Structure formats: structure tokens, C-alpha cells
């Protein structure tokens, strides 16, 4: 699609077209990635409202006039630029709208962008300080969860949205599964593993968690290339030989070797049968 045609289409339609194209690609990828993609991009109805407040009742009364009107919970269209994947936005995005600057002036388009801060957050599992661009909502969520690790591990992919957050979450999950963190402090490691044991998912799902469609496609191609690569016959024979040596029964009694000189000597007595 050319740049001229792309600019004429609204963002929501472009997003639907892109998701439709990605669905065809995801359908041929492994099942663990399909599961992650459905959680990441196919759960819009489960997303936590950020820029609007849903109403529980279907009918709403105007407090001034007393008029009762029907209310529909329609979310505000939100734009998620590519820069979102470089930080933690906490579900926030860019809102496009119109502003009327005067009574007799025409409305003009305007974009509402979140406030960004470059701050340092601490990961208890990785035992590292990370310099990340965050929004106010992301900082509030980290404080509510009492730390970065708890926020990432307890928040689903459709609320994290950012690829940076998803990649950090994958790294945390691998660290908990392998128990390769805080090796010098095993007591703290045990406490953290026990704390986040309910957040764990199978290892096969973790290996495909947090990848974009393009990254998952490239990874799948590399796996297929490795599997289809022929193995040299000498390596296969060597492998079978090593396996036979490993499986050999060494408990067999050793047989006494007789030199050919003794066999040719006519004065030697033949070995008696037991």
C-alpha cells in the first residue's frame, strides 16, 4: 500500500487491515505463538478502559434536566504509534480529536499525547536498574503492584501492549523457570519463586511470548531451516557408534587374551574346561 493511499484511510481501518494481514501469517506459526497473539491483539473486549469510563447501567439520567437517555459503552478510538514499543505506556495512547478555538472559528484537529518521563526502575528478579521511558499511568501501576516485576508478571499482554514490556516479561518468566537469578542469595530466590509461581506458564509458551509477528516469522523460518538441514552420514555413523559405546554392558567378564606365540607352541597344554 502506497503512502498516498495510506494517508487517505482512517487509523482504525488501517489497524483492521493490518490485523487481518497478520492473522494469515500467524495461522501458519506454532500454536504457542498463536495463543500469545490472541491474548495480545485479539482481546480488545477485555482491555482495561484508560481514556474513558464505562457505565454499568444501560440508561442514564441527566442530573440537570432529569431526562433519561440510553447509554452505550463505546470506547474512544486510540492511536498506538510504533514509539509505544520503546517504553512503558501503561495502556495509554494518542487520542485524535477536534478543538474549536473560538465561537466563530472552525474546529481544527488536535492530538492528545501522554506525558512521558525517562526514569529508572528496579527489577528485583533481574537485580538491575533499568532506564525506561514511562508515562504517569505506568508509574502509578508499578506503584500499585509494589514493583516492576509484579506489574509485568500480573498484567496480561492486552494491557501491557508494549513489546518492551512483553520482552521483559518473557525474560522474567525464563529466569523464574530456570532459577538462574540471585544465585548468591538462595533464600531470596526461593521466596520470589514462591511469590510468582501463580504467574508461570508452560515453557513452550514462554519461548514464543513477547515477539512481534515479524520476529516470530523470522524465528520460525530459522527453526525450519535447522530442521531441514541434512546431516552428514559420517556424523550419523559417529553418533550411533558413541551411543553403542554408552549402552555397552561393561559388566561382562573380561576374556583372557592368548598371544599367537602360545597358540603355535606345541608344548603348551590346552586350556581345561571348567
TrEMBL record:
Q: Which SUPFAM superfamilies does this one have? A: L28p-like
Ordered alphabetically, the record's keywords are: Ribonucleoprotein, Ribosomal protein
The record, for InterPro entries, names: Ribosomal_bL28, Ribosomal_bL28/bL31-like_sf
Taken from the UniProt entry, a GO cellular component term is: mitochondrial large ribosomal subunit
Lineage, top-rank taxon, reads: Eukaryota
Q: Which GO terms describe its molecular function?
A: structural constituent of ribosome
Q: Which PANTHER family match?
A: 39S RIBOSOMAL PROTEIN L28, MITOCHONDRIAL (PTHR13528), LARGE RIBOSOMAL SUBUNIT PROTEIN BL28M (PTHR13528:SF2)
Sequence similarity: Belongs to the bacterial ribosomal protein bL28 family.
Q: What is this protein called?
A: Large ribosomal subunit protein bL28m
Q: What species was this sequence derived from?
A: Folsomia candida (Springtail)
